Amino acid sequence: MEQKKSLNYYMRLLHRDIGYFVIGFVIIYALSGIILTYRDTDLLKKETNIEKTLPKNLDPSKLGEMLRIRDFKVAETTGTTIYFKNGSYNSSTGLAKYVTKESLPFLEKFFNLHKAPSKNAIHWVNLVFGISLLFLALSSFWMYKKGSQLFRRGLYISMAGIAIALILVYL
After folding, report:
1. pLDDT digits 0-9 by tens, 7-63
2. Angle (CA) 32 37 38, round 5°
3. Rounded CA separation 127/129 (Å)
4. Residue 1 has pLDDT above 70, yes or no
5. Tens digits of per-residue pLDDT, 103-125?
6. SS3 for 59?
7. CA 22 vs CA 16, 43, 93, 120, 144: distances in Å
8. Distance of alpha carbon 155 from alpha carbon 145, whole angstroms
9. Over the stretch 121-135, which tens digit does the pLDDT of each residue have?
10. Which residues are CB-neighbours of 67 under 8 A, at least 6 positions away?
11. What is the DSSP letter of 142?
12. Taking the CA of residue 32 as centre, how many other CA atoms within 13 Å lie in the half-sphere pointing to its CB?
């Protein structure tokens, strides 16, 4: 007669198999998350020189909107030329010259997966991945028998991790 398998057995089995299954996603999310942390720097970005003809005599407050530059600030105005970070605008000719820095195209695919909104069909991948990670975190409590030294150690480490995460969130 076959012995009945315990909940611990099934949780360990699922933990192992789901862990192996999501490893590709974990690598993609980890790398894209690390790179996105530095999105305000020039890390892995390419420069593109842009020249646009805009209406003449634009108000500096409208210039940022027309160029679609976030946090636009005028650095200096000399005669008919308005200088801003990475560019200039000649108000008499309407010519704007500036440099944009954009992520490399292959990285944009990773970022789009990482930041997919609910309107995008790929958001289901994010949802399943998030649920899988939640399962992996919770199923780890079934890796060792309750009351064992390793189980208690896991609880202490988990409590420390949760406390540090909450502290970092609320700083």
Report:
1. 889 999 999 999 999 999 899 889 888 888 888 888 889 999 999 999 998 888 888
2. 105
3. 5
4. no
5. 888 888 888 888 889 999 989 98
6. coil
7. 10, 27, 55, 21, 22
8. 12
9. 989 988 999 999 999
10. 52, 54, 87, 96, 98
11. G
12. 20
The residue type at 82: I
Q: Is the dihedral of CA 166, 128, 131, 139 positive or negative?
A: negative
Residues 154-163 as b or e (16 or more Cβ within 10 Å = b): eeeeeeeeee
Do strands 74-78 and 95-103 pair parallel, antiparallel, or not at all (unpaired)? unpaired
CA–CA separation, 25 and 129 (whole Å): 7
Instruction: Map tokens 């199923």 to a residue.
Output: 139
Residue whose entry in the numeric block shows the structure tokens 């609910």: 118
Based on its alpha-carbon atoms, the radius of gyration of the chain, rounded to whole angstroms, reads 26
Paired tokens of 121? 């069909």
Amino acid letter, residue 23: I
CA dihedral 40, 29, 114, 15 (to 10 degrees): -150
Q: Could you read off the pLDDT of 143-171 as tens digits, one per residue?
A: 888 889 999 999 999 999 999 999 999 99
Decide if 143 contacts 61 (C-beta within 8 A): no
Which amino acid belongs to residue 122? I
